[in-house]
Design goal:
With 279 residues, the protein is an alpha+beta fold. Helices cover 33% and strands 19% of the residues.
Length: 279
């Protein structure tokens, strides 16, 4: 886990009504403000294309694992210095949504990011974060931010017990707290009552033409207890194929050299993808 720079500051709930706490350095606050100004000129009738254009402005930003695991208490972490795959998707989507507002500003970005990242849009401890990406999709679908289109592309439902976090409690420092651990167990129990719809690699190859630039692509896995290992945005490249615009664990935000169909073949234990279309 990265050490927390001394320049980080925390806004407590008493200061604001829209988040319990924010962890953001002055440099990152300024970076958000500058990014809002940068993307203000990006406008496209297709929201997905707008997200891709915004996402491309992050190319080269370093990949940093576990960017949200900061401090002992859960806070709304805001950083553009380094991103993992999920925070990359969240930030791009947040900037896209804020860009639709008449007067976008830092406060509106904060509210939007909280809405995306937490169950029902409310930060309420570690357990309120949407840790399992399938729940991230379903919760943001309820909020009207995305639509899960996996089934319409030829996806098939599977039964899978999601319990990776509770089984591997030692991998998550925040789960040392019994209350947080119980919250995660309760979430997993609810998720286990739902089936997963996965678009296989074969069906993806057949229906690649139905995927749009800006669709959120979540990589499904056969790892026991886990639903998704990686995520990013679909982007139709110059070769006419769908590639992946993502924060790559190999180093930085980039566009995959290989088309998505071929990219997946090189990932051990990949079982296909889940596709969510931003609205």
């Amino acid at each position: 886990m990265r050490s927390i720079p001394l320049c980080f500051f925390i806004f407590l709930a008493s200061v604001t009504t829209w988040a319990q706490a924010i962890t953001c350095s002055p440099e990152n606050k300024e970076a958000v403000i500058q990014k809002i100004l940068e993307v203000k000129g990006i406008d496209n009738e297709l929201f997905g294309e707008e997200l891709v254009a915004i996402g491309k402005t992050f190319i080269g930003v370093p990949y940093v694992a576990k960017t949200l695991e900061v401090g002992e208490e859960e806070s709304l972490v805001i950083t553009l210095e380094g991103l993992d795959c999920t925070t990359y998707v969240e930030n791009v989507l947040a900037f896209g949504l804020v860009n639709e507002k008449t007067e976008p500003n830092f406060d509106s970005f904060v509210k939007t990011l909280e809405k995306i990242r937490y169950r029902d849009g409310q930060l309420n401890g570690y357990g309120s974060r949407l840790h399992y990406f399938t729940e991230w999709i379903s919760d943001n679908e309820k909020k009207g931010l995305v639509q899960n289109i996996t089934a319409s592309l030829g996806g098939a439902e599977i039964d899978k017990k999601l319990n990776f976090m509770s089984v591997h409690r030692d991998l998550y420092p925040h789960l040392k707290d019994d209350k947080s651990f119980q919250h995660i167990q309760e979430t997993e129990k609810k998720l286990q009552q739902q089936s997963l719809c996965i678009l296989s690699q074969e069906m993806l190859a057949m229906n690649e033409d139905q995927i749009h630039s800006g669709d959120i692509i979540a990589l499904a896995t056969s790892i026991e207890g886990l639903d998704v290992t990686h995520t990013g945005f679909a982007i139709r490249a110059d070769d006419g194929r769908i590639h992946l615009l993502h924060a790559s664990s190999s180093g930085a935000v980039e566009i995959s050299a290989l088309p998505l169909v071929d990219y997946l073949k090189k990932i051990k234990k990949n079982t296909g993808v889940i596709v969510a279309r931003p609205l």
